[in-house]
Amino acid sequence: MRLNTYEFGDAAGRPIFCLHGVTGHGGRFAQLATRLPGFRVIGVDLRGHGYSGYEPPWDIATHIADLVETADSLGVASAAWLGHSFGGRIVAELSAAAPELAERTILLDPAMRIESQIALTSAEGTRPDVSFASLEDAVEAKLADGTLFTTPREIVETEIAAHFEQGDDGRWRARFSRVAAIVAWSEMAAEAPAFPKQPTLLVLGARSWITNTVVPDLPSLEVVTVAGGHSVLWDNFDETAAAIAAFLG
Q: What value, to the nearest 5°, has the Cα angle with vertex 212 and ends 222 and 100?
């Protein structure tokens, strides 16, 4: 499947693909692009998310095939790849499945493997139809859910406005497939992939709910820990963006 993409920054610059986590979307990397001059920042809506197709299957192998097809359609033979959470796991898998496509990788608090009980609880939490009477209600709910620590309110407001749509019933919902998200939680509970052999930046959130990431001692791996939680680009945008820019040179 050719996935929906968003492009920011220098259209003639070095390409970097950016993959969101489960229930997210590719448009959320617009702010990061402002810190990466000279780069063609390509945000991707994974299958089952945003404006990409929602049809199954939704397993990691299919996500990788979608990304290879999308990169080819954009004329990109090799690029840097960045992924947050579930997107980080996909980047790690992609780096092994299509190493010629990934010249270097950036893993933002990646869900390399999560505990089975956490995956079950998260999948069950995805099943209900969560909706809001207004975008303001959605913002308040996100700020109150306990996953964010220092994220400025304006970041959440921008995210909600871009990613939510109003249904025929007048209520607002995030734009993703609940069944695709449930499959993603199952995939994240499977055995962790190896870390990429390519030069890799790993950014960890000091207060992240992902606490079982096993960090190998690899000469190709640079590790940075930032304050805040799992959403490192929201809780600690400046520090995370600076680490990414320095790594990419």
A: 45
